[in-house]
Specification:
The structure holds 2 protein chains of 2 kinds. By secondary structure, chain A is of the alpha/beta class. In chain A, 40% of the residues lie in helices and 15% in strands. By secondary structure, chain B is of the alpha/beta class. Chain B has a 5-stranded parallel sheet with strand order 4-7-10-1-11. Chain B has a two-stranded antiparallel sheet with strand order 2-3. In chain B, strands 5-6 form a two-stranded antiparallel ribbon. Classes of the chains: A alpha/beta, B alpha/beta.
Chain lengths: 616, 345
């Protein structure tokens, strides 16, 4: 197969430079290419093939099992003469070459771990017992990931560099991209030949840089500057510093210099440190777990989105400020008329979701948690010796387990005789989206000053976020004397947004009814350990009695809330109360639930960005 | 066994956009497939299955389970590559097929795996090809694609990116070409599609049930006729079918001589920038679909009118930031804009 030549790639200069740089230094082990779909990630990764003559690309497919990665028992050899030999896995075959792992976020965790383990150690350990020792595998890892997906901080830190592909906004460039794409499809040799001179020049540059690299030095002053810079950028650990050294030296080598310059350092910093930065904004704001997504903002800048100032103003517009609600007024009781408010403006939502495990990097917080499945569904992630009778047999693994014993078994004419002790069963893993239930106050008071318009806009923004992350969303509205599930959990946001538009407002405020209903709908998921999320949009007011006890409305709400707090549901309370005089009921509610508390206006990423900038 | 008679493509009443989308892909497979969205009973599956009858022949390696293209050793599967070296290889012609990927498929069946039977009986490792092998050079059809399990979606995307299926499992290491036209159908009420997969579909059509009374009656009549006598019904459309498949063959042979001019390349770029789409797939698909459209019409070059005709199939699902709206780009406003831009070139 003829690969698309790297010099024929239009634009994406920084990615090409980073890749050439990685080829120039044996110390650079892993590069991550991140970008929106259709921006050439695959093409760029594949174009590395044979730039350094003899250095080929090896692919790690998503379907690879553990033995496929590390190598394992060679079936044919063990059956032929009873000798245990190993076959080469992807890691060993990539020794001295370039290993391409696309769509890193979809790789199985065990494979990701083996990969990252060996990329820095330089050797891999074959799977299974009785295998020979570690295999030599020094390779350059090129990972790709869609910019909407996420990797954990630990995985991100293993990449020396992280570079971003971009959509070109230039007409002539875009037209050229299409022309070359079609040319490549119809006549790959033709395109290769057309760019053969450029490709040869590129190879020369890289080879010269490889030779020069060992002699390139970094002055002591610059070494100090590197660690200072990492500190300033809030980079954790020392890997970033080390990557910076290697990359800046490689950059100097590519330019034909023997010492690293300030320019090299700056360029290296954007490639090596950006993806390792801790959320700066979250440290500046008072609530650390709700920092705005810095990658989101970075992406925005990348697309050259309009000036921030006007956007921030828009953000305020979404959440108009209301006149303070006086304590005495009881609009709920008087306002029985129903009204349907339009859906307010949408906005980018901050990363508001409570975390389950480690902090995730990039846009998503809780996308598709993986769980070991017990019901024979989900994808196979491995095999094990079954503890009892099983009907979910891993045939391949069973045969491999039986193979070494064949020399002393009666095979009855077959190549392999399988005994009960050989049987292996599959270990399956199921990924599932998180269930997110929105519990919304639909009482009359929400109609005041168009508050419902803003709330609907907020919900729609939250729904959009949830949709992108493949979560299931549901909607419960409480008003008059009941709580009604307007929408059962669904992945169809289209349906959700329609229901939302039709949602009426009016009547009293049965908050506890709503909480009980939501609990009922989420408790099965909660008991399975799926950690569903309940997002309550309320001002904390409750004026319909749920139980028969003699507590007042507030006490009943808080006691129900604290009894739910350890149910395994994650709670988010979004306070819709506005104005200068606040009752703070929602704060009390979120405390009782041990949940996350956010004010409605803070939900807007632009607003938060604005306030963080003000703190600075 | 005789193949069951399928409802003829040319007997489908209405649904012109869906038919157009399918035909464009039959002419220019690298457009990247079609996603057909619509409620139940809108002839989605019927149309996809009916397309099989119209598909042209391919020149393939005789007996290759991976459907390797004849005379292309650079892109052949491991087995064929060996045969090419030994010069022990023959070609044959085969009709393009519609290969279905059932929702209940396992990873092993999709990707292919160790041939267990062969391992037990002969003690040798051999690759057992999966659905992705059979789909090579053909149409891969996923009904209710929005309900496909996430890990299968990931596998599909992984293979679609390269057009090659690399297999590293159960001790088998094998690779074979897997270029297919992905056709999916879905009912949007049952859930959304992951954005990554959506972006992979070249074209998207939304189908609705027919509103015109007379046409509805016609649909029922034809359906009853077909059920009573499938063979006879198919026969009565044989002439129409032949004309249509001739058109496809002619368009396919015309296609290589069509080159996109600077005018439509610029228009495609302007359009993508105007709509703010991510990535470059929309430009590429817009041009390819326009070329196929021109070829189908027997024209010698694609122009702005071709692009306008296909834009509603290419663009709506790629627009940034509105996963909610019923993917309607305001067609009047957009048409005006595009005609205006085309005039300005």
């Amino acid at each position: 197969m003829i690969n698309y030549p790297m010099p024929a790639v239009v634009g994406n200069r920084n990615v090409k430079r980073a890749l050439a740089c990685a080829l120039s230094s044996p110390d650079i082990r892993a590069v991550l290419i991140c970008g929106p779909p259709g921006t050439g990630k695959t093409m760029l990764a594949n174009s590395l093939d044979n730039i350094v003559p003899g250095k080929r690309t090896v692919r790690l497919p998503l379907n690879a099992d553990n033995e496929g990665v590390t190598g394992g028992l060679d079936l044919e050899s063990v059956l032929r003469d009873g000798r245990r030999r190993t076959f080469k896995g992807v890691l060993e075959r990539s020794d001295g070459n370039i290993l391409i792992a696309e769509n890193m976020s979809a790789l199985r965790e065990s494979v990701t771990n083996m990969l990252l383990d060996s990329v820095h150690k330089g050797y891999g350990l074959p799977e299974g017992d009785g295998m020979s020792g570690p295999c030599e595998c020094k390779f350059l890892l090129i990972g790709t990931i869609d910019s909407r997906e996420c990797l954990s901080d630990g995985v991100m830190d293993c990449f020396d560099m992280c570079v971003f592909t971009e959509t070109s906004e230039n007409e002539a460039d875009r037209a050229e991209i299409v022309t070359r794409h079609i040319e490549y499809e119809n006549d790959p040799e033709g395109l290769r030949d057309r760019f053969s001179d450029d490709a040869a020049r590129m190879s020369e540059t890289v080879i010269a840089a490889m030779k020069r690299y060992p002699h390139v030095t970094v002055s002591d002053g610059y070494v100090g500057a590197i660690s200072k810079l990492s500190k300033e950028l809030n980079v954790e650990g020392h890997r970033g510093d080390i990557s910076m050294m290697h990359v800046s030296r490689a950059l100097a080598a590519m330019d034909g210099r023997d010492s690293v310059s300030m320019e090299d350092l700056k360029e290296a910093a954007s490639m090596c440190l950006e993806h390792r930065r801790k959320d700066v904004a979250s440290d500046a704001s008072s609530e650390p777990e709700r920092g705005p997504d810095k990658n989101d903002s970075a992406k925005k800048d990348e697309h050259g989105d309009n000036d921030e100032g006007s956007e921030r103003e828009d953000g305020h517009e979404d959440v108009p400020s209301f006149a303070p609600d006086s304590l005495e007024s009881t609009p709920d009781a008087s306002n029985d008329a129903e009204e349907i408010f339009v859906v307010g403006r949408e906005f980018d939502v901050i990363d508001y979701m409570p975390k389950t495990r480690e902090k995730r990097h990039m846009k998503n917080s809780g996308r598709l948690d993986a769980k070991i499945s017990k019901d024979h569904s989900g994808r196979t992630v491995g095999y094990r010796i079954p503890s009892s009778r099983t009907c979910d047999i891993a045939l391949g693994a069973t045969i491999y387990a039986a193979a070494p014993h064949q020399t002393h078994r009666d095979r009855r004419g077959l190549a392999i005789a399988v005994k009960t002790e050989d049987v292996r069963e599959k270990v399956r893993e199921k990924r599932h989206g998180t269930k997110i239930m929105f519990l919304v106050d639909g009482s009359g008071s929400m109609g005041a000053e168009q508050r419902m318009v803003a709330v609907k806009g907020a919900i729609l923004s939250l729904l959009r976020e949830a949709y992108l992350e493949r979560n299931e969303v549901g909607l419960i509205v409480f008003r008059k004397n009941v709580a009604e599930a307007v929408l059962s959990p669904t992945k169809s946001v289209l349906t959700a947004s329609r229901r939302l538009a039709e949602m009426p407002t009016g009547g009293r405020t049965p908050l506890v009814h709503g909480m009980a209903k939501a609990y009922d709908m989420l408790r099965i998921d909660a008991s399975k350990g799926y950690a569903p999320i309940l997002v309550i949009l309320t001002d904390g007011r409750n004026n319909v009695k749920y139980g028969s006890g003699d507590e007042n409305f507030r006490e009943e709400m808080l006691s129900v809330a604290s009894s739910m707090s350890s149910s395994g549901i994650r709670f988010v309370v979004i306070d819709t109360e506005t104005g200068h005089v606040r009752l703070g009921l929602a704060v009390a509610l979120s405390k009782a639930l041990a949940g996350t508390y956010i004010r409605l206006e803070e939900l807007n990423a632009e607003y938060l960005k604005g306030s963080v900038n003000m703190i600075k | 066994m005789r193949r069951r008679t399928v409802y003829p493509f040319s007997a489908i009443v209405g649904q012109e956009r869906m038919k157009k989308a399918l035909l464009l892909n039959a002419i220019y497979p690298s457009i990247g497939g079609v996603l057909i969205r619509g409620e139940k009973g809108t002839a989605k599956s019927t149309a996809v299955r009916a397309l099989a009858d119209l598909l042209p022949e391919r020149h393939v390696v005789l007996g290759c389970p991976c459907g390797c293209r004849w005379g292309d050793p650079d892109n052949a599967c491991a087995d064929c590559a060996e045969k090419y070296l030994k010069n022990d290889i023959e070609g044959t012609f085969e009709h393009m097929k519609v290969v279905e990927l059932p929702l209940s498929s396992t990873e092993d069946r999709v990707v292919g795996t160790l041939d267990i039977e062969h391992a037990i009986s002969a003690g040798r490792k051999r690759f057992e090809p999966g659905i992705l092998a059979r789909a090579n050079g053909n149409i891969l059809y996923v009904d209710e694609v929005n309900l496909l399990e996430d890990n299968l979606v990931d596998l599909l995307l992984d293979v679609a990116a390269m057009g090659v299926n690399f297999v590293e499992r159960e001790g088998v290491s094998f690779s074979h070409p897997s270029r297919f036209v992905l056709i999916g159908t879905m009912n949007p009420e049952e859930g959304d599609l992951r954005p990554q997969l959506l972006d992979r579909f070249g074209l998207v059509v939304d189908v609705e049930s027919e509103h015109d009374e007379e046409r509805r009656i016609e649909i029922i009549k034809r359906l009853i006729d077909f059920e009573n006598d499938p063979a006879g019904f198919a026969e009565s459309y044989e002439k129409d079918q032949r004309i249509l498949s001739d058109d496809i063959v002619k368009a396919r042979s015309r296609l290589p001589s069509l080159h996109p001019g600077t005018d439509i390349l610029t228009l495609a770029a302007k359009t993508a920038i105007y709509l703010g789409v991510d990535g470059h797939r929309s430009d590429i698909t817009l041009i390819k679909a326009a070329l196929a459209n021109a070829a189908l019409k027997g024209k010698n070059a694609a122009d702005a009118s071709d692009m306008l005709e296909v834009s509603a199939l290419v663009l709506p699902h790629r627009m940034r930031k509105n996963p909610f709206q019923d993917s309607s780009l305001d067609s009047d406003e957009f048409n005006d804009w595009m005609m205006n831009e085309a005039g300005a070139l």
